[in-house]
Amino acid sequence: MMRIAVGSICHETSTFTPVPATWDRFYARGDEVLSTFTGTNTPVGGFIEASQDFELVPLLCAEAHPAGPLSREDFDAALDELIQRLRDALPLDGVLLYLHGSMVAGLGTQQIDDPEGHILEAVRQVIGPKVPLLVTLDIHSNVSPQMVRLADALVVRETYPEVDMAERGRECVDILRRMLYDGLKPTMAFYPLPLIWGMNQVTAHVPMRDAIDYLHDIESRPGVVTASISVGYFLADVPDMGSSIIVVTDQNLEQAQNYAEELAAWVWNRREDWYFELPSAREALALAEQAGQYPVILADMRDNPGGGSPGDSTGILRTFLEADLQDACVLYIVDPEAARICHDAGVGAQVSLLVGAKASPLQGEPVAMDAEVIALSEAGEFDYDGPMFAGLHGRMGLSAHIRQGGVHVLLVSVREQPFDTAFARSMLLDPQQMQYIAVKSTAHFRAAFEPWAGVIYVVAEPSVHDFGNLPFHRLGRKLYPFDSTAEFNNPTGVLPA
Fold first, then answer.
1. 115-127 vs 72-89: helix axis angle to the nearest 10?
2. Is the pTM of this model over 0.90?
3. Are the beta carbons of 195 and 271 closer than 8 angstroms?
4. Residue 71 gets which letter from DSSP?
5. What is the DSSP string of 110-161?
6. Distance CA 372, CA 461 (A)
7. At the N or C end, where does the chain have fewer CB atoms within 10 A?
8. Residues 12-44: pLDDT tens digits?
9. Residues 6+ apart with CB under 8 A from 425
10. 443-492, pLDDT tens digit by residue?
């Protein structure tokens, strides 16, 4: 039976947030990898599901919540452990890895701008050039030439919200199986676009749906193994930041290069389509009242913990309270200090709190609340309903459900966006019974919330991630729309693996 190693070192890094990073989401070793991810809608869950005819050798799965750069100490320790476990597992017939694609590790002279490339280089040194190495990436990846050179194939997620995590893991296994049994020899081309993709990325909606349809058209052509669009992750000030196209063919590099440039040109020619203006929360409420469709969901994208934000900005909370909304809720505000006060007071108590805006002055001002404590949880434990992360166990830390007037707030201690309603319901709050819902999220909430939403507005409120005023200094090329002189040309040509 073929022996296949499985592992992950994963972090989405913002270089503009004050939030430090630690391995606080998962750190699973050996058989813990199988027990943690079997049956889950995750990339590693997809590896496991599709590998029933292989002998899986689980290495290490280390993942941090999105935040600032990992320390070199934490990154190096995880990589050293992964590599040692890989050495101990030899001989191997293949390696499957889940990497995010937008990690940054260390600061100053110790900074690694391309940790994923660094990881793949270390893996290749152990397994050699002939053992298949398949990697699945987040759709928000800053793909580097080094990543392309070292992997046999990079498979990027095709949905946003990213509900195809397990599916892309299964796709990697399918490619690996074809390499091992059918003689497939992947040839991979990479086209970096001079483009910072705007937030018009929801793949169920036009125009992004058109881009994915074009991608699928290319994937359906003879000789194409897989193709990917990475929209990039624009909160990382690193030379490889930006969008890109990947096409993998079977022993036909010229074909891969031509298709990669074709899709890149299609995206570039529609570059203005990937952007839209964001209203404030107050403006969005006015639009919602005109629309008259409920429930109204406001997505606070700038304070999305899924992008590394602190998750404690107060713009929407203040707007809801000042508007004296009824049947309204805010999911979530990260404030362990306020949550602790609620726990000390107990369920049913009336508490006076200063809520939020404790991470940075850029997050707004704390909001004074006189609220009733509705529910409490010491660990904030629950199981995700999905579609994203379905079956995975979650923890929000010390948590409290409070209510002032008609406005409900979930206070949490762990930074996380609301992927579904499971945690809220565990705290005696059913968002589907609300008329107004604020989520600290950009798009992932849509997978669970959009089917029953009346209307959704993505809004802009003060945060550390004020996208129009981020101080970039290290970009590797001119990028639209930051630089209007950016041109569609790849100075190094379409890079082969």
1. 20
2. yes
3. yes
4. P
5. G-BS-HHHHHHHHHHHHH-SSS-EEEEE-SS----HHHHHH-SEEEE---SS
6. 26
7. N
8. 999 999 999 999 999 999 999 999 999 999 999
9. none
10. 999 999 999 999 999 999 999 999 888 999 999 889 999 998 999 986 44
Burial classification of residue 450, based on how many CB atoms lie within 10 Å of its CB (0-12 exposed, 13-18 middle, 19 or more buried): middle
The 186-192 sheet, strands edge to edge: 224-230, 244-250, 186-192, 495-496
Q: Contact 118/78 with Cβ under 8 angstroms?
A: no
- Tokens coding 472: 């970039």
What mean pLDDT value characterizes the chain? Answer: 96
CA pair distance 101, 485, nearest whole angstrom = 27
Q: Are 311 and 461 in contact (CB under 8 A)?
A: no
Instruction: Give me the residue label for tokens 């050996």.
Output: 30
Residue written as token pair 């058209």: 217
| Cα separation, 61 vs 44, whole angstroms | 9
- Strand, coil or helix: what is 254? helix
Token code pair at residue 452 = 């029953």
